[in-house]
Write a structure and sequence with these properties.
Order of helices and strands: HHHHHEEEEEEEEE
Number of helices: 5
CATH architecture of the largest domain: Sandwich
Number of strands: 9
CATH topology of the largest domain: Jelly Rolls
CATH class of the largest domain: Mainly Beta
Shape: elongated
Structural class: alpha+beta
Length: 182
């Protein structure tokens, strides 16, 4: 059993691009402990394993049900993107079901008059994008600008921000944010 847990932990750690040392640091354990678990020389208690998995982060249930041998999906059809928006704002997430995703990539569509809301958005990380079609007004802190096709934005997401389509045609944006916020 301990060798199965160890090989599974190694596969999951590598799938998330973490070294033993980085996982140990995140989990608050020694890298020796991670090494011993992965070698099958130590069988961790449920509490110890949960502490290690919190460094990824990953739930115990996901750890034991995930198939580390399964090749992650690489390509996505349009109807496989997860819809996160509502109303006149469509936010289609790429790879929404991918475990350990470290990046949010969105296809954003704003219908005429659409707005992310009167309350400004703010969250950790950075985000950027390129306007594909239409026009969008973006407010970042005290800066406001209308962007059109081919124009782009990039800013720290902790700065309050808002997106509004004040035009008469729909606006499409391809954007990315890190760490994954959705």
């Amino acid at each position: 059993m301990s060798s199965e847990v160890g090989s599974r932990l190694r596969a999951v750690r590598q799938m998330h691009g973490l070294s033993q040392r980085e996982l140990a640091k995140r989990a608050g354990v020694t890298n020796g402990m991670i090494s011993l678990i992965e070698q099958g020389r130590v069988s961790p208690s449920v509490a110890s394993l949960k502490k290690v998995l919190d460094g990824i982060p990953m739930a115990l249930a996901e750890f034991f049900t995930l198939d580390p041998e399964q090749t992650p999906q690489v390509f996505y059809a349009g109807d496989e993107l997860t819809e996160l928006g509502e109303g006149d704002v469509s936010l289609r997430l790429v790879a929404g079901n991918r475990p350990g995703r470290r990046l949010t990539i969105l296809r954003e569509v704003y219908e005429p008059g659409a707005d992310t809301g009167a309350e400004m958005l703010s969250h950790p990380g950075e985000e950027g994008g390129v306007v594909v079609s239409g026009r969008i007004e973006i407010t970042v802190g005290s800066q406001v600008r209308q962007l059109g096709p081919g124009e782009a934005f990039y800013f720290p997401s902790a700065v309050p921000h808002r997106f509004r389509n004040r035009g008469r045609e729909r606006c499409e944006i391809i954007s990315a944010a890190t760490p994954p916020t959705l």
